[in-house]
Every structure is written in C-alpha cells, then in structure tokens.
Amino acid sequence: MKDETICLHSGYTPGNTEPRVIPIVQSTTYTYDSAEEIGSVFDEPTKSLIYSRFANPTVMAVEAKIAELEGGIAAMCTSSGQAATLLAILNICNAGDSFVSAAQVYGGSINLFSYTFKRFGIECIFVDTNASEDEIRAAFKPNTKLVFGEMLANPALTVFDIEKFAKIAREKNVPLIVDNTFPTPILCKPFDFGADIIVHSTSKYMDGHALQVGGVIVDSGNFDWNSGCFPEITGPDMSYHGIVYTEVYGKAAYIVKARMQLMRDFGVYPSAHSAFLLNLGLETLALRMQRYCENGQVVAEFFKASDKVASVNYPGLKSDKYHALAQKYLKGSSGVVTFALKGGKAAAVKFLDSLEMASNAIHVADIRTCVLHPATTTHRQLTEDKMLAAGVDPGMIRFSVGLEHIDDILADIKHALACV
Predict the structure, then answer these.
(1) Residue 51, Cβ neighbours under 10 Å: how many?
(2) 3-state helix, strand, coil in the chain (%, to 5)
(3) What b/e sequence results for 63-80 when a residue is b if at least 16 CB atoms lie within 10 Å of its CB, and e otherwise?
C-alpha cells in the first residue's frame, strides 16, 4: 500500500460487526483462564498481553502502523520523544560506553547526551554534521557503540547525510540511529538509505494537533548484532530467565529487548487514549505534510526576499546550503523555517510579540502556526559554544508554518515585520 493508504488502514483491521475505528482499550490488566497460562506468559511475554506497561491493543495498532510507514520490522511507542531517544540508546550502551552524535540535534537531546548520559557513565562524542568521513572516523573510540543523527535538525534545519554516516557506522560495526521527527516517513524513509533504528517525537507532525506528548522507536531488523560487541543483545539476559534475544527473536532482537527489559524497568509506555489520539493524527499525516511543505516553501521564499531578514534556513530553497541533500533524501522540507532578522535578538523579540495569529509557544509542527525564539527557550540551557554548534544564532526565530490559508499567514508576517 502507498503511504496515504497505510495511514488509514494499517495496524487495525476490523472483523465482522467490529468497530471500524481503532477501539480504546482502557485497561491495565488482562485476564486468563488458569494460573499456569498466566505464568507461561512471564516466561515468554510476547506470547500474550499481561500488563499495559508492556503493551496495549490500542497502542499496538499504532505501533504497527508506524512500523509499516517507516518500513521497519516493529515499533515501540513511548510516553515522549525524549523517552524514545533515551531507551533507543540505553538499549545498546552501558556505563563505560560511548556513542557518536551529530552536533546539530534538538536541544533536549544535547542536554540528555551531554549531562544525563555522562552521569550514567556514557560518553557522547559530538561531530559536526558537515564533518568529513575521516573526521567522523577519528571521533570513534574502542568503546563506541552507535551513531546518532537528526534527519532535519530542530531548529538548525541541517539535513543529515545518512549515507555518509551509515557507511562509517557499517565500517565500525555499529548501528545508526536517526531522529526522523520533522520529515516523518512521508517525506523521508531513513531505512532506505542505511539507517538501522529510527526515533520520533510523535508529539510533532505525527500527532499534528498539539494534543498529546509521545514518542516511538522503530527497528529496521537489518542490523547484525552478532559481531561480539553487543553481549547485552547476543548474550543471556539474567533479568529475564537468561533469555538470548538474538536466538529467540532473530531480526526483532533489538526492539523486543527494549520492550521486555527497558520498558519493564522505566515504564514510559503511553496510555491507550494517547495512542488513539495519535492515530487520528496519523490518518491525515500524508495530506497534512503536503500542505505544510507548500506553505513552508512560500514562507521561506517570502523571508528570503525581505530586506529586514539577514538569513533564512530552509532546505527547500535552492540557495540553501543543504538543498542538494534535501533533494537526495527528502520529498519536501516540512513546514519549519528558521530565520534571523537584521536587528538581532531585539528585533526578533519585537517580531514575535507583534504577531497576531501565530502563537508564541513551546511547540512546533502543529496545525496552527507557532513561533519560538530558541536561544532563550529550548536552547537556553546551552553554553554559547554549544548553542552555535547546534546551529542556533541568538537572533534566530523558529517559524512553524501551520495549515491556515497561506494569505493569512503572510499577512500576519507582514504586519509583524512592519513593527520591527
């Protein structure tokens, strides 16, 4: 099926007289006919449902839909995008390990990688997304377990060169994890270019309506864990009866381990109602992404032509540094545009405060246009050097174009610019 059809039909097929829409199974527990049967499920949790901290029918339907959209073997939803990134990495890295990450990633990811993981004894080695292959290779250490990158970085809008990083990851026998939040699988399918694992903040375009926070991990099933470098996946898990994930679950070893071990211990599984709302967003994702891209392109071109604008970042612009990579990997550049006014931070604040329709909000990728000043919000906690490395200029504005009529969006922009 094509993406538009997958968005509507994948994950749940009603039987005769059953509900056409995915039902909300609002229950924490599931009953069994015998003590022996329920005991057997604790030996083999994927055999059946036991508790909604592990799995829930409503959430499972959404997981199946997202996995099919990305072309993966399976997916696991989480309570936030940050939780998805956390578990995706902890599923591989232990204290004493390191991983390589592109420097141009979401500010929350930088915090997680730089500080919290450091407390866990896990080191993140940042490299510029534009680094040469030799520079990336030089960042690796004997204990490096994975590579991480953000497909369309928030808010720098750099385009991650999947094939370049995937090539080096393969050489080093480590998996490549890609955050595909902004493009969504409608605009980019990282598995097609060599990524092994994908994470999303489903709170953004997938949900699309600013209704609920969520995340997801998708496993391609393509990475060979049997290199001797991943004993936690290829060796016995003594916290689960000594099970060896690669022997029992084969290509799904990574994602099953994440569910049976990490979801069990961290408990960051979403509610059935949250998954139901996410599915409503997924059903129109393909249609919405088309309009986001159309509106985003027009807004980017408008900012580019303004004499009050110092710079614009949007890979859809032919003049953009990442236009060629966008043409290679993306079917569109989403609805997020970042730009800087010539008056710097003071002008940015005046512009933001002068908008009448667009919301000044700590959110992005909504159906409604929303704006933000990253340097004083999402990236406020970073040092100046780390902020610049992440591609955040002090005067940068993140403009997330919504689905309003483009004439109304432009009218709001023109009014705000006239006040600067």
Answers:
(1) 15
(2) 45, 15, 40
(3) bebbbbbbbbbbbbbbbb
Q: Which residues pair with 280 in a beta bridge?
A: none
Provide the strand spans (E) within 266-332.
309-313
Number of other CB atoms surrounding residue 261 within 10 Å: 20
190-247 residue pLDDT tens? 999 999 999 999 999 999 999 999 999 999 999 999 999 999 999 999 998 899 999 9
The verdict on pTM exceeding 0.70 is yes
d(CA 54, CA 36): 20
Whether residue 303 contacts residue 86, with contact meaning beta carbons closer than 8 Å, is answered with no
At 302, the pLDDT band (50, 70, 90 cuts) reads very high
291: left (phi over 0), alpha (psi -120 to 50) or beta: alpha
Q: Is the pLDDT of residue 382 over 70?
A: no
Judge whether 128 and 103 are in contact, CB under 8 Å.
yes
Q: What is the rounded CA–CA span in Å between residue 15 and residue 8?
A: 16
DSSP-derived letter for residue 271 is P
At 210, list the tokens. 């600013």
Give the pairing of strands 197-201 and 215-219: antiparallel
